[in-house]
Design brief:
The chain is mainly alpha-helical. Helix content is 80%, strand content 0%. The relative contact order is 0.13. The chain crosses the membrane at residues 12-29, 35-54, 66-85, 91-109, 121-140, 146-166. Keywords: Membrane, Transmembrane, Transmembrane helix.
Amino acid sequence: MFPRLRAQGPTVLIPLAWAVVGLAHLDVVSDRAVLIFHVVAAVLIAAFAALSWDEMETDVLRVWRDILLVGLLLTVGGIVGLLVVQLRDPFLTTTILGWMVVPGIGLYYTGKRVVTGQRAYTAGAVLSVLGAAVYAGGLFPATNAALLAGIGLALVGQTVGIAQAVRQPRETPSG
């Protein structure tokens, strides 16, 4: 059961994470709930990385292992931002933008390295990075519609990418 959960869990967890971010922007979920979600996410990311470390030693999977490590740092930064009021805005903004851009880069790289699913990975990359651009543009001045649109783009893009990865878990690189 655990290998299956490890392989397919991200297809639920990634869109769930972005949904929580969107709901937090709408003040539907409390800061405490967002903090708990960040702590749980950090534990899950660390556990996934530790349990998958040896399987993620080469090529595309090595890039995703690095993305998990950067993502863990981003998530811990989000925890700090939620706990230290003076750091809230810069740390949470960095966490959100980082989680949009870093997986976007990974999806782009993956799309260039695999034979099957190149379009899905590339589309996911474009949507994720476009989401970051829309979100960043919505910060100055703060526009909830733009922030939510950016979150939505990242949600769709990263969900497309992880769904492709689950469909093609043992893809061999093309180059």
